[in-house]
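Need residues for this backbone.
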């Protein structure tokens, strides 16, 4: 299971009814080649944690189904074999259709991870995604936030997109070199991973170098330098990890952990709630790093990133991009197979 998503704020606002919904591709889910991405998330202000909607399978006519009954969400290809394919992709969520309009959602959606090392291609892909959502609704485009891998090229793409009022989230992030460059690029959010992605795919694997200190360090850095970028902690595996992050600006919680969290009283947490983030980071990154040099020079940044954690940070990012690229390949195969069946 992927461990990213959109800000839930449930640590700072425990009475919130905002739920993170997340769904990995299964055999019953089809995505259009018009939107080449692995998955998407939606936050919805209801008590329905599975109110995730689907996308129509036809290339060029991708459909975000937030309200089944509204004509503007209908697709020209909703008849014939495409309608049958669409009905199959509804799956167990069909009973929730019509529960909300698109305007009530905040959506985060990833660019094609195989474009992670191309600024121009990532920008083009992101604009294509946002254009699709704009064609579906007159809602504020800021309700769509594009997730982009935190490579040098990806973060330069974020800089371009943010300058054009497209919200971005820098993902696959493991170190301050990435976090500082994301802030310089003007990203709306970063998603620092507490655990490397491997923990969600390899049973029994434990990340021996969790990113709690990185989350705290990034948030302190942003506050110190008055950055607009906000921290959205991600890749969590337990309620204890969630509780330790109390005080972070935003946090992503998978449905399983959200259920466990709702069943646990805050008073049962052994340490004072928020104590970890109330403390200063152990290290002031800028005091030991020539920030201006590495942020303004590509080769300097690449070397600093490569040396971060003696290569561990870059290795974790490369691993994450590989996982996501594998899923991208699978979805492209799935779409191709679906298109053949529909013709």
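Answer:
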């Amino acid at each position: 299971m992927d461990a990213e998503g959109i800000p839930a704020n449930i640590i700072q606002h425990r009475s919130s009814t905002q739920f993170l919904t997340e769904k990995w591709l299964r055999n019953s889910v089809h995505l259009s080649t018009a939107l080449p991405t692995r998955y998407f998330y939606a936050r919805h202000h209801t008590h329905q944690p599975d109110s995730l909607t689907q996308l129509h399978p036809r290339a060029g006519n991708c459909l975000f189904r937030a309200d089944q009954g509204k004509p503007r969400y209908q697709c020209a290809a909703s008849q014939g074999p495409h309608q049958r394919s669409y009905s199959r992709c509804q799956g167990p969520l069909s009973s929730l259709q019509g529960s909300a309009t698109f305007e009530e959602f905040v959506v985060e959606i990833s660019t094609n991870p195989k474009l992670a090392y191309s600024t121009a291609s990532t920008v083009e892909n992101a604009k294509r995604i946002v254009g699709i959502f704009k064609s579906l609704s007159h809602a504020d485009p800021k309700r769509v936030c594009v997730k982009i891998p935190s490579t040098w090229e990806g973060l330069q793409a974020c800089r371009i997109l943010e300058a054009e009022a497209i919200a971005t989230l820098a993902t696959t992030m493991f170190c301050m070199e990435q976090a500082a460059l994301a802030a310089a690029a003007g990203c709306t959010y970063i998603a620092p991973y507490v655990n490397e992605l491997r923990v969600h795919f390899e049973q029994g694997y434990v990340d021996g170098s969790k990113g709690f200190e990185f989350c705290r360090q990034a948030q302190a850095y942003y506050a110190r330098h008055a950055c607009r970028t906000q921290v959205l902690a991600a890749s969590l595996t337990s309620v204890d990890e969630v509780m330790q992050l109390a005080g972070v600006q935003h946090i992503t919680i998978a449905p399983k952990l959200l259920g466990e969290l709702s069943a646990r009283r805050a008073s049962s947490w052994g340490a004072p709630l928020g104590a970890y983030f109330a403390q200063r980071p152990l290290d002031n990154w800028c005091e030991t790093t020539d920030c201006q040099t590495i942020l303004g020079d590509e080769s300097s940044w690449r070397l600093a990133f490569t040396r971060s954690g003696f290569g561990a940070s870059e290795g974790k990012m490369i691993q994450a991009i590989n996982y996501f690229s594998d899923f991208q390949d699978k979805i492209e195969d799935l779409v191709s197979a679906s298109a053949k069946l529909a013709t």
